[in-house]
Write a structure and sequence with these properties.
Helix content is 9%, strand content 49%. The chain has 1002 residues and is mainly beta. The chain is globular and about 100 Å long.
C-alpha cells in the first residue's frame, strides 16, 4: 500500500467530521447556569484547577484559585456533572438544570491513593478513565510540582517523579541536554529517546548541536517553559501500541499545557525567580617530579632551585580563576480566565542563565496563547500557539583540546613560569584564548495547534488535531584572528567562522473517533478508530570562512577562503488504528486493538506492518465476593495485564542505495563531477519490532492512605537494525543496515504514595519509586560481537555495550607484574540496574510547605576516562606520580601494570581497564524547598489574592564511592553507542543551585 493511500481513511473521517459539524446543535433556548465550589472532603480546603464537566458533552471548565467554577448556557433538564482532580476520587452528581436560573452544585472530593476514575487525557484511545486501562500509565500534576520544586526545565520536571523513567543530566553546562530512558534501552543502533507529544502533536525533542563543542549538545525538549505545563502522562509500555505503534518502542511522553477557565474571572500571576549556580567541585591538581634538568632550568618556576625528586603540583584552573559563580533569573507572567463559553490562557516568560564557565549562557524567551471555545454543548474548539526564542552558548569541554577541563586537567606543572603553556595542555591556550572561542545557537520555535472535539450524540465522539512544530536555528562557531598562536594551526589563528542554518518542520494530522453503546444490561462497548499522519523534514545549510581581515568582520564572505555544504532529510509516516474496549459491570475491562503503519524510511518491497494489543483490567475489590475482612486493609485492588507490539524506525534514507560526489580530472584545466558508492542500501529493511508483556496491580491500603502500584514488564526487541559488514571488494564505503538480532529488557516498577499523617494543622505526604531493569542482547544473528573496551561491546548474553576488559587474575609482586586473562571478560552494566527516588512534603497550617527529594542509582559502572587520560596518557595524575606512596603494590599493578596474560605474553595497558571501570552507585540529595503562602490579609495589602515565597536548592549533597566528581555525567561522543555508554571524559559535573522565587496572583 502506498503511503498516500494509507492516509485516505483519516482524511475521509475528517471530512465526515466536517459534515457532522453542520448538524444542528443543542437548543440555544431554555438554558441555565451552574455554579459551585470544589473542596477537599476532609479538610474543606478549596481545590484549584479541578476539572468540572458535563458528562456526554464538550462542556467543562477548571476551578479557580478558591475552588469556584461556573458553567453557563447549559441546556435545561437533568444532567450528570462530574468533578475530578489528580489524587482524589471522581464524583458525579445528577442535577436538574432549570431554564433561566442559576443552580448551585458543590463537590467535596475524597482523597484517594489509587485514582481509578482519573481521566487519562491523551495517553489512550477509547475509554479514558484509568480503571479501564490495562497498562500502567504514569501521570502527575506538573503545575503542582513547579509550585514547590526547583524546576528550571522540562528535564528537571521529569526527573525523579515516577517509576520506570530514568533521566541523566549530561553535564554541568547550562543549556546542555539529557538522556531519557523509559524501561531501559530497546534498540542497539537507533535512538532510545521516547516520543514527545505536546497538546496532541508530535514535538521535536532532539538533543542536537550543529557545531560540536567536544561532547555536549542542547536539547529541544528544554525549549518549553515548564510553568506552561499543566500535566504530564508517561506511556512506558504496550499502552503505546494503538495510538503510536510504529515508532513507540522507546515510550511516549505526553505534555499538556495549561488551558483557560470557562466562566471564571480573569486572574493573573507574576513570578520572579533569582538564583546562584555554584561549581560544586574542586578540580584536581596536576603533579610532576623534578629531575636534575628541571631544577637547573630557571624557566621551570616550581622546580628551579629545588632538590631532585621534589614532587610539585599545580592547579591551572584555580590559578587562572577559570570558574565563576553562575546565576539565573526568571520573570514570568500568566493570565487565565474566560467567559460563558470560552476560556483562555496567556503567558510570557524570560529566563537568563549564566553557567559556571565564562562563555556558557542559556537564555529562553517564551510566550503562549491557548484559547478554548465551546459554541455548543456538542462542539469544542481548541487553538494554541507556543512561541520561543532560545539562545545557547556552550563552552567547550569533554574531549576537546580547546576546552577548559581538557586544557587545565591535562597540563603539566613543569611548564609553569617561563613557558607558553604555563601549566596548561597547549601553548598560549589558557582561559583568555578559550573564552574568545564562541559557539552559539539561536533557535526560534513555533508550535501552532488546532483541535476540534465534536460529540453529535452523547455516545459518539470525534477529535481532530492538526499541528506544526517549526524550528529555525542559526549556529555560529568562531575562532578569532590573533597573533598569539592561541589555537595551534595557521587556519584557526588567521580567524575562522562557520555558520549553519537548520530548518526543522514536523506536521501532525491526527484523528480519532469513538462510539459507546450498552448491551445486555451489564456490558458497555467502546470502539475507537482513527489515524495519524506525521511528516518531518530537516534541512541544514552551512558555510565556513577561513582567514579574516578583522574579527569585527566575521561574516563568511569577508573571509579569504570559503567552503559550504548542505544536508537534507525528509520522512513521512502514516498509521490507522482501531481499539475495542469491553466493560462488564464497570469493573472488568477487556481491550483489543491493532494498528497498521507504513513509513517512507523503508523500501518499496516493505509493505505495511501491524501492531496488535490486548489487555485486561479488573477492579476486583468492587466485587460482592471480595472479603469484607480485607476492605479495611486493602480497600482498593485492581489487577491488570497487557500485551502489545510497538516499533522503531531508522532515518529517512536508511533503506536507500546512496552515492557520494567525487570530482575527477578531465584535463589539466577541467574537473568533472562523478560519484563513488557509499551504501548499498537494503530494499527489504523493515522496522524494529518491540513485543512487551506487562503484569501488575494497583492497591489502596489503610482507608486509601497508602497507594501501591506494582508492575512487571518483559520487553523484547526483535528484528534489530544493525550494520552487517560487507566485503571491501564491493566498492561501498559503508555497511548496509539489516534486520537481525534480539534485545530484551525486563524489570519491576514499584510506586508507593502515602498520606502519612493528616491533622488540622499538619500533614505529611510521601512517595517512593523503585525500578529495576535487566538489559540483555539475546541474539546477533550472523553478526559477530562488536565494539571496543572504551566504548562498550555488544555480545550475546550481556547488556548492550557492556563493559569488557582483560581482567586481573593475580599479582606477581616480586616480578613487578600483574597477570590478566587471555581474553576480555565482562565487568558490568553501563546503565543502572536499579534506581529510585523518595520525596516528602510537610505542610504546616496550610501556609508553610517543606519539600525534599532523594535520588539514587545502583548496579552500573562508569568509565572514568578522565583519570585514565591524566594518569596513563599524560602522567600528571596524583595516583601516577605518587603511586609508590599512596598505593599498595597490588593497587599500583592493577592500575598501571605492567601486564602479562596467563600464557606469559605482554598485554598493552590499554587492554586492561578494570581500575577505570568504576562502580557508580550513588545517593543524591536532589531537591529541597521551603514555601510560605502569605495570609490572605497580608496578600491583600498588595491587592493580591495570594502570594507565595519559595526558597529551594538542587544537587545539595552526593554520597558515592565513584572516584570521579559526578557519577551522573555523560560524555556526549561515541556515535551509536553514545545512547548506552556512561563515560566521564573531562566532563563538567553538575553544579549546586540555590533559588528564590516569589509568586503573586491578582
Amino acid at each position: 500500500m502506498k503511503l498516500k493511500r494509507l492516509v485516505w481513511a483519516p482524511l475521509v473521517a475528517i471530512a465526515a467530521v466536517g459534515v457532522l459539524l453542520c448538524a444542528p446543535g443543542a437548543s440555544q433556548a431554555q438554558q441555565g447556569t451552574l455554579t459551585g465550589k470544589v473542596t477537599d472532603a476532609r479538610s474543606g480546603a478549596p481545590i484549584s484547577a479541578a476539572q468540572v464537566f458535563v458528562v456526554g458533552t464538550q462542556v467543562g471548565t477548571l476551578t479557580d484559585a478558591n475552588g469556584n467554577y461556573r458553567i453557563a448556557s447549559l441546556s435545561a433538564g437533568p444532567r450528570q456533572i462530574s468533578a475530578m482532580f489528580l489524587g482524589y476520587r471522581t464524583e458525579t452528581i445528577e442535577v436538574n438544570v432549570l431554564a433561566g436560573q442559576v443552580v448551585t452544585l458543590d463537590f467535596q472530593l475524597a482523597q484517594s491513593a489509587v485514582a481509578l476514575d482519573e481521566i487519562i487525557v491523551t495517553g489512550t484511545a477509547g475509554r479514558q478513565d484509568r480503571r479501564a486501562q490495562a497498562a500502567s500509565i504514569s501521570s502527575y500534576n506538573a503545575a503542582a510540582i513547579t509550585e514547590i520544586a526547583p524546576v528550571t526545565s522540562v528535564s528537571t520536571l521529569l526527573q525523579g517523579r515516577t517509576t520506570g523513567v530514568s533521566i541523566s543530566t549530561a553535564s554541568g553546562n547550562s543549556g546542555s541536554g539529557q538522556r531519557i530512558r523509559l524501561r531501559g534501552s530497546a534498540s542497539i543502533q537507533l535512538s532510545n529517546e521516547p516520543i514527545v507529544i505536546i497538546d496532541g502533536i508530535r514535538a521535536d525533542s532532539r538533543v542536537n548541536q550543529i557545531y560540536d563543542v567536544g561532547g555536549q549538545a542542547g536539547s529541544r525538549l528544554n525549549d518549553i517553559n515548564p510553568d506552561d505545563i499543566e500535566s504530564i502522562e508517561i506511556v512506558k509500555g504496550p499502552a503505546a501500541a494503538t495510538l503510536y505503534g510504529a515508532d513507540a518502542s522507546a515510550g511516549v511522553i505526553q505534555i499538556r499545557t495549561k488551558r483557560g477557565q470557562t466562566g471564571v474571572p480573569f486572574t493573573q500571576t507574576i513570578s520572579y525567580e533569582r538564583g546562584i549556580i555554584q561549581q560544586n567541585w574542586t578540580p584536581p591538581a596536576n603533579y610532576a617530579i623534578c629531575t636534575a634538568t628541571h631544577v637547573a632550568d630557571s624557566r621551570r618556576a616550581l622546580c628551579f632551585g629545588k632538590e631532585v625528586g621534589t614532587i610539585i603540583s599545580d592547579n591551572p584552573l584555580d590559578r587562572y580563576d577559570a570558574f565563576r559563580e553562575g546565576s539565573n533569573q526568571n520573570l514570568s507572567w500568566s493570565g487565565r480566565g474566560g467567559g460563558e463559553n470560552y476560556g483562555y490562557y496567556l503567558s510570557f516568560s524570560t529566563d537568563q542563565e549564566s553557567g559556571t564557565l565564562p562563555n556558557n549562557y542559556y537564555d529562553r524567551y517564551t510566550g503562549r496563547v491557548n484559547f478554548d471555545f465551546t459554541p455548543r454543548e456538542d462542539l469544542r474548539l481548541e487553538a494554541s500557539m507556543g512561541l520561543g526564542r532560545i539562545n545557547t552558548d556552550l563552552s567547550r569541554n569533554d574531549n576537546n583540546i580547546y576546552g577548559y577541563l581538557g586544557g587545565g586537567l591535562l597540563g603539566s606543572p613543569l611548564t609553569v613560569g617561563g613557558f607558553a603553556n604555563d601549566g596548561w595542555y597547549s601553548a598560549n591556550r589558557q582561559v583568555e584564548a578559550i573564552r574568545n572561542i564562541k559557539n552559539t545557537t539561536m533557535s526560534i520555535r513555533t508550535t501552532p495547534v488546532f483541535t476540534i472535539r465534536y460529540t453529535p450524540v452523547p455516545w459518539f465522539r470525534h477529535r481532530l488535531n492538526v499541528g506544526l512544530d517549526m524550528t529555525r536555528s542559526e549556529a555560529k562557531d568562531f575562532y578569532p584572528k590573533n597573533d598569539k598562536t592561541w589555537y595551534g594551526t595557521v587556519d584557526l589563528n588567521s580567524g575562522q567562522i562557520a555558520q549553519g542554518r537548520q530548518n526543522r518542520d514536523e506536521i501532525t494530522l491526527d484523528y480519532m473517533g469513538s462510539a459507546q453503546r450498552s448491551f445486555l444490561d451489564n456490558f458497555v462497548a467502546d470502539l475507537a478508530f482513527g489515524g495519524q499522519f506525521i511528516a518531518a523534514r530537516t534541512d541544514l545549510t552551512n558555510a565556513t570562512g577561513i582567514g579574516l581581515t578583522t574579527n569585527a568582520a566575521n561574516a563568511i564572505n569577508a573571509a579569504a577562503r570559503t567552503t559550504g555544504g548542505q544536508s537534507y532529510s525528509e520522512s513521512r509516516d502514516g498509521g490507522l488504528f482501531v481499539q475495542l474496549d469491553l466493560a462488564w459491570r464497570d469493573r472488568m475491562y477487556l481491550q483489543l486493538g491493532g494498528r497498521m503503519d507504513k513509513s517512507s524510511a523503508f523500501g518499496e518491497e516493505v509493505g505495511t506492518f501491524f501492531n496488535p494489543k490486548a489487555g485486561l483490567s479488573y477492579v476486583i475489590s468492587e466485587e460482592d465476593f471480595y472479603p469484607e475482612s480485607l476492605r479495611g486493609l486493602l480497600s482498593t485492588l485492581r489487577l491488570r495485564s497487557v500485551w502489545g507490539s510497538t516499533g522503531r524506525s531508522p532515518g529517512s534514507a536508511a533503506a536507500l542505495t546512496t552515492f557520494s560526489a567525487a570530482a575527477y580530472a578531465i584535463s589539466s584545466t577541467t574537473v568533472g563531477s562523478g560519484v563513488t558508492p557509499n551504501n548499498p542500501g537494503n530494499s527489504e529493511l523493515s522496522p524494529e519490532r518491540g513485543v512487551e508483556l506487562e503484569l501488575g496491580f494497583d492497591a489502596g491500603l489503610f482507608d486509601e492512605r497508602v497507594g501501591l502500584e506494582v508492575t512487571y514488564y518483559d520487553k523484547t526487541s526483535n528484528d534489530l537494525i544493525l550494520s552487517r559488514p560487507i566485503p571491501p571488494s564491493l566498492g561501498f564505503s559503508s555497511n548496509p543496515l539489516v534486520n537481525i538480532g534480539q534485545l530484551k529488557n525486563t524489570g519491576w516498577e514499584i510506586g508507593v504514595n502515602a498520606r502519612v499523617l493528616e491533622i488540622p494543622s499538619f500533614s505529611w505526604d510521601a512517595r517512593v519509586n523503585l525500578s529495576t531493569n535487566k538489559n540483555e542482547v539475546t541474539d546477533l544473528g550472523d553478526v559477530l560481537p562488536f565494539g571496543t573496551q572504551t566504548f562498550g561491546m555488544v555480545k550475546e548474553g550481556y547488556p548492550a555495550y557492556g563493559w569488557f576488559t582483560n581482567k586481573i587474575v593475580s599479582f606477581d609482586v616480586p616480578n613487578n607484574r600483574a597477570i590478566v586473562t587471555d581474553s576480555v571478560k565482562f565487568v558490568g552494566n553501563p546503565n543502572p540496574g536499579f534506581e529510585g527516588n523518595a520525596s516528602s512534603t510537610f505542610t504546616l497550617f496550610r501556609n508553610l510547605r517543606v519539600y525534599g527529594q532523594l535520588d539514587w542509582m545502583a548496579d552500573y559502572y562508569i568509565y572514568n576516562n578522565t583519570d585514565q587520560f591524566r594518569e596513563r596518557q599524560m602522567g600528571t595524575g596524583e595516583r601516577w606520580v605518587l603511586r609508590n606512596d599512596v598505593l599498595t603494590d597490588e593497587e599500583r599493578l592493577a592500575r598501571f601494570g605492567p601486564f602479562v596474560n596467563e600464557s606469559g605474553a605482554a598485554v598493552l595497558a590499554s587492554s586492561v581497564n578494570g581500575a577505570y571501570f568504576q562502580k557508580a552507585d550513588f545517593l543524591r540529595f536532589r531537591e529541597l524547598s521551603v514555601s510560605y503562602t502569605l495570609p490572605q490579609n497580608v496578600a491583600g495589602m498588595f491587592r493580591a489574592s495570594s502570594a507565595t515565597v519559595t526558597f529551594s536548592g538542587r544537587n545539595l549533597a552526593l554520597w558515592t564511592d565513584y572516584l570521579g566528581p559526578d557519577p551522573e555525567v555523560l560524555w556526549g561522543g561515541g556515535g551509536a553507542q553514545a545512547g548506552f555508554v556512561r563515560t566521564d571524559f573531562l566532563t563538567l559535573p553538575q553544579p549546586r543551585r540555590w533559588l528564590g522565587r516569589v509568586n503573586v496572583t491578582f
